[in-house]
Design goal:
binds iron/sulfur cluster, four-stranded parallel beta sheet, 7% strand, alpha/beta, globular
C-alpha cells in the first residue's frame, strides 16, 4: 500500500464528525473506542509516546467497518491506517490465535469439514474449547449452516442476449462452502446480461489476512488473484473481498451489483413481477463504506415491479460480523447484532437482503435464534428470485 501511519494520521483534524458514525463509540461512549481516539493512539504509538502493546486492545475492538471514513470531512484513510497499525502490532508481537483462525477460515477444505462436524452437534454451538482459541469472552457465534443447493431450471439460451464477453467469479473461501446458491444466482444474473463465467478458481483474495495485519500476505494473495484472472473482469459478490481487491490495486474488480447495473439488468428486472414478502436491505460496511457502493443494490431491487422495499434504520451500520470480529470480540459483536435485529424487525419485512457473506451468516443467526421467520438472503438471490416468479 506504500503508505505511512504518521502521514495518514496527520490528516485528522480532530473535529469529531466521525464519532456518531462509529458503532463502538455509540455503544461505549469512550473516546478510545472512537475513530478520533484510535487515530490519536496509533499516532502516539508510531511516535513512540505510548508502547504499541498499550493500544492493542483499543485497535482490536475496532470493527474496521470504515463508517468513519464516510463521515470524515478531512479524507482520513482510516482503513489503511488500521491495517498498517495492525501489521505493526503483528510484527512486534505475533498473535498466534489470530493466525490459526485465519488459516482455518481461508481453507475451504477445513471449513467444509468443520461445518460437517458442527452439523452433528446437537446445540449447533461452537464447542467452548474451540471458541477459547479465539477469545477469552463467552462465544456468541453459532456454527453457520451451509445452504442446501437449490435446483434451478436451465436457462433457455434462445431467450437471452448473445454472449458479450466473459468474466471470472471470485468464489471466496467460506462463501463457496456456506452459500453455493449465491454463486448459482450470480452466474444466472451475469448470463442474463450477456456474460459467461470462465471457470477459473481464483483462490483466496487475502482480505481477511490484510484486515488482520498480515498485509504482505494479503497483497501477495490479491496479486495472485489478478494473475489468475487473465485480464478478465473479476466479479465479487462478497463486499469484504471486493473492497480489499480494489484497495490492493486489482482494478479489474467489480462488485456484482455495480456490474449488473452497468450492464442494464434493470431493463430485464422491469419485466418481472415480485410475489415475495416485503424486503429490507442491510448495507454491508465494505460495500457502503469500503467501496462507496450504496445506490446500485437499491436501484436493482427497486426496479422489480411489486417489490415492497422497506427502509432499514441504520442500514449502513455494522452488524458486528466484521470478518473475524464476531469470533474475536463476541460481546460487542452480539450487542451490535441485537441492535441491528431490532431495526430489522421494526421494518416488518419478511426478507433481509445483503451483499456480504459475513453479514449474511451473522444476521441469519439472529433470525435462527428467534425461529427463523425472517429470511436472510444475498442480493443476487433476491434478484434472481424475481425472474422465478411464475
Ligand atoms: S472526522 Fe476525520 S478529521 Fe474529524 S476527528 Fe474523525 S477522523 Fe479526524
Ligand atoms: S472502522 Fe468502524 S469501528 Fe473502527 S473506528 Fe471507524 S467507525 Fe469505528
Amino acid at each position: 500500500l506504500n503508505k505511512e501511519i504518521e502521514e495518514l494520521a496527520s490528516h485528522c483534524i480532530r473535529c469529531g464528525f466521525c464519532l456518531e458514525s462509529c458503532p463502538t463509540f455509540v455503544i461505549t461512549g469512550e473516546e478510545n473506542s472512537s475513530p478520533r481516539g484510535r487515530i490519536y493512539l496509533m499516532r502516539g504509538a508510531e511516535e513512540g509516546k505510548v508502547p504499541w502493546s498499550a493500544v492493542r486492545e483499543d485497535l482490536d475492538s475496532c470493527l474496521g467497518c470504515r463508517a468513519c471514513e464516510t463521515a470524515c470531512p478531512s479524507g482520513v484513510e482510516y482503513g489503511a491506517l488500521l491495517e498498517l497499525s495492525r501489521q505493526k502490532l503483528e510484527q512486534i508481537r505475533p498473535d498466534k490465535r489470530r493466525r490459526t483462525l485465519l488459516d482455518q477460515l481461508t481453507n475451504p477444505a477445513i471449513t467444509k469439514l468443520q461445518f460437517a462436524f458442527a452439523g452433528l452437534l446437537p446445540s449447533k454451538k461452537m464447542p467452548s474449547f474451540v471458541a477459547r482459541m479465539w477469545s477469552d469472552e463467552p462465544a456468541q457465534a453459532l456454527l453457520p449452516i451451509p445452504q442446501k443447493a437449490e435446483h434451478y431450471s436451465p436457462l433457455d439460451e434462445e431467450q437471452w442476449p448473445p454472449i458479450r464477453g466473459e468474466v471470472v467469479l471470485l468464489e471466496g473461501c467460506a462463501m463457496r462452502v456456506l452459500f453455493p446458491n449465491v454463486h448459482l444466482a450470480t452466474r444466472r444474473l451475469l448470463r442474463r446480461v450477456g456474460y459467461r463465467v470462465r471457470p477459473i478458481d481464483l483462490g483466496c483474495c487475502g482480505a481477511l489476512h490484510a484486515h488482520s495485519g498480515f498485509l504482505e500476505e494479503g497483497e501477495s494473495r490479491a496479486k495472485e488473484v489478478a494473475r489468475r484472472a487473465q485480464g478478465l473482469p473479476i466479479i465479487s459478490n462478497s463486499a469484504g473481498c471486493g473492497s480489499w481487491l480494489k484497495d490492493a490495486g486489482v482494478t479489474a474488480t467489480r462488485d456484482l451489483s455495480e456490474f449488473l447495473l452497468e450492464n442494464s439488468l434493470i431493463s430485464e428486472l422491469q419485466k418481472t413481477k415480485w410475489s415475495g414478502p416485503p424486503v429490507t436491505y442491510h448495507a454491508a460496511c465494505h460495500l457502503a463504506h469500503g467501496q462507496k457502493i450504496t445506490a446500485a443494490p437499491l436501484e436493482l431491487l427497486g426496479a422489480i415491479p411489486g417489490l415492497d422495499l422497506r427502509p432499514l434504520e441504520e442500514a449502513d451500520r455494522c452488524c458486528g460480523s466484521a470478518g473475524t470480529y464476531n469470533l474475536t470480540q463476541p460481546t460487542m459483536a452480539r450487542t451490535l447484532l441485537e441492535r441491528k435485529w431490532g431495526f430489522v424487525e421494526a421494518t416488518g419485512a419478511g426478507w433481509v437482503v445483503t451483499g456480504n457473506p459475513g453479514c449474511h451468516a451473522w444476521i441469519e443467526q439472529a433470525s435462527r435464534e428467534r425461529g427463523g421467520k425472517i429470511r436472510v438472503i444475498h442480493t443476487a438471490e433476491a434478484l434472481e428470485t424475481a425472474f422465478r416468479t411464475p
